[in-house]
Amino acid sequence: MVIEIDFNSDEAIYMQVRNQIIIGIATSRLQEGDVLPSVRQMANQIGINMHTVNKAYSVLRQEGLVTIDRRKGAVVAIDADRLQTLAELKEQLLILLAKSSCKYITREEIHQLIDEIYEEYCL
Amino acid sequence: MVIEIDFNSDEAIYMQVRNQIIIGIATSRLQEGDVLPSVRQMANQIGINMHTVNKAYSVLRQEGLVTIDRRKGAVVAIDADRLQTLAELKEQLLILLAKSSCKYITREEIHQLIDEIYEEYCL
DNA sequence: ATGACTGTTATAGATATACTAACACAGATT
DNA sequence: AATCTGTGTTAGTATATCTATAACAGTCAT
């Protein structure tokens, strides 16, 4: 699980880490039960602070994607809280679609883009 | 253009304002050339600081949705920079779809949800 | 017992958010 | 011409968040 950070991005480092782990899980490079690298190990590997990785793991726990055990570390464990997931998804999609609509991106183009992403990243 | 803020939300106030204006434009309640309320007026109306509204307007300007004139105020003016819009959209959609996929939301459900949003909000 | 490994807590500095107050310019009204 | 009212802008401040360093506490193999 190689993680790359763009230090010039305006997105917080811990969110970049979180995002890439989510993509890792979605693409099955990380699977239910897999243990994530320790916060120190991953922090070292990508040259950031341990606590920043810890924050990323905490967010993932709060989002129901991992559990954190003092002994083992962070373990991939999906809590498929369907209703909440759909509600959040809808809210975020709405903003994305609204902005796209402002820029004259059509509904068909959105559908197409989604299929493109699914295939490009093998979700 | 009535804007409602959830002060308990973890989303920044200026982003909530920005989001609702984007939805307003997407649903044609705000149209090209329309003048947004002055920063003071809107700040007063929703009970927040003028500078917070100013920040929202600044973001909208940077996103190519309004222009800001010292005399007139903020005016809806779409800069349909298609390529950049699509690139940003794809990046953000990827994260959303990946997270959904982790939670066992299918591609079909995504397509369905998008149609639902388009119809519910008349985008 | 010791050493190596976990995550956790305490603390601090930098950055971002939201605010108050004062400013500068444009345009209408006196 | 002077004043008033309307713009956004800038300066400065308090609070929260992000990132970092350092010390802590529990677990487990040696």
Topology:
The structure is a homodimer of 123-residue chains.
Chain A: H1 13-26, H2 39-46, H3 50-62, E1 66-69, E2 73-76, H4 82-102, H5 107-121
Antiparallel strand pairs in A: 1-2
The structure holds a DNA duplex (30 and 30 nucleotides).
Task: Explain this structure.
2 copies of one chain form a homodimer. With 123 residues, the first copy, chain A, is mainly alpha-helical. Chain A has 2 domains: 13-76, Arc Repressor Mutant, subunit A; 82-121, no CATH class. Chain A is 58% helix and 7% strand. In chain A, strands 1-2 form a two-stranded antiparallel ribbon. In chain A, β1 and β2 form a beta hairpin. In chain A, α1 (13-26) crosses α3. The longest helix of chain A has 21 residues, at 82-102. Chain A is globular. The first copy, chain A, starts with 12 loop residues before the first helix and ends with a helix. Chains A and B meet through α1, α4 and α5 of A and α1, α4 and α5 of B.
**Percentage of residues in strands of chain A:** 5-15%
Largest sheet of chain A, described in full?
2 strands, antiparallel
Would you identify the CATH architecture of the largest domain in chain A?
A: Orthogonal Bundle
The N- to C-terminal Cα distance of chain A equals: 16 Å
Helix-strand pattern of chain A: HHHEEHH
Kindly report the greatest chain-chain contact and the residue count on each side.
A-B, 42 and 42 residues
What is the CATH homology-level superfamily of the largest domain in chain A? Answer: Winged helix-like DNA-binding domain superfamily/Winged helix DNA-binding domain
Averaged pLDDT of chain A: 95
Contiguous low-pLDDT stretches of chain A (5 residues minimum) are none
- Percent of residues of chain A in helical segments? 55-70%
